[in-house]
Amino acid sequence: MSEHIAGKVIVITGASSGLGEAAARHLAARGAAVVLGARRTDRIESLAAELSKAGGKALAVETDVARREQVQRLVDAAVETYDRIDVIVNNAGLMPLSPLDRLKVDEWDRMIDVNIKGVLYGIAAALPHMQRQRSGHIINVSSVAGHKVRAGGSVYSATKHAVRALSEGLRQEVKPYNIRTTIISPGVVTSELPNTASDPDVAANIRKMYEDIGIPADSFARAVAFAIEQPDEVDVNEILFRPTRQEF
Ligand SMILES: NC(=O)c1ccc[n+]([C@@H]2O[C@H](COP(=O)([O-])OP(=O)(O)OC[C@H]3O[C@@H](n4cnc5c(N)ncnc54)[C@H](OP(=O)(O)O)[C@@H]3O)[C@@H](O)[C@H]2O)c1
Questions:
Q1: Quick check: 3 pLDDT over 70?
Q2: I want to staple 196 with a disulfide (CB 3.0 to 4.6 A). Which of 94, 166, 230, 245 is the partner?
Q3: CA-to-CA distance for 5 and 225, rounded, in angstroms?
Q4: Rounded to the nearest 10 degrees, how much is the dihedral formed by the CA atoms of 123, 142, 191, 78?
């Protein structure tokens, strides 16, 4: 069913590492034009160059998803370069876990800015183009933590629950425009995410869990591809996957 991926213009935020990078590689290999957003421009530029050299279509645009105008510029660059936007994967996120009583209020703010507002800015940038086209697909990345809450993960969990709530509202609202919406909720997938925890004890625990049970990031890429490759009338609204060994 690659024909449902080949030729599509797919914007991916947080494409400089982990899940976003894996999705970019997978989708470009299946013939999509990928538009890569992240703050680390060296990473996305070399990825775009590598994918282009391999015969794919890729564009890198420096993007901080906490800045609305930068997300708009990312999406507009996709439309200017490739004439349309078929999919946006709102993937950028961070997970600086810590118990609330450590009062890491700056990290709470950052998670709200990136994990929630970044997703909203992606929707705001893509939606008008998709409404005009009368087609499109908005994929928002939540987490198992968007379904379950654990001590030490309250704020991260809250942001990922928010992603699911706003995605479900979006799903209902965009029906008249023939736009599809998908929530993807991964479990423990190997990436640079554990590096975002600032407390050494928390970081060590997360790193150990990722080393013990993490599954490769192409698991995420295949989930994204599954949602995109369905026929236009099939709207895969939610995918939750975990390592087979993950308990929670
Ligand atoms: N890995 C897992 O186990 C797991 C499980 C559930 C959900 N998730 C979710 O999956 C998503 C991707 O995370 P990952 O695991 O791939 O972690 P990662 O390797 O740390 O990648 C995070 C990506 O987000 C980008 N990012 C962070 N802040 C950003 C900002 N302000 N503006 C633009 N991009 C920003 C980073 O790029 P720059 O730093 O270059 O900007 C990077 O490309 C996140 O939403 C995460 O919550 C991951």
A1: no
A2: 94
A3: 7
A4: -10
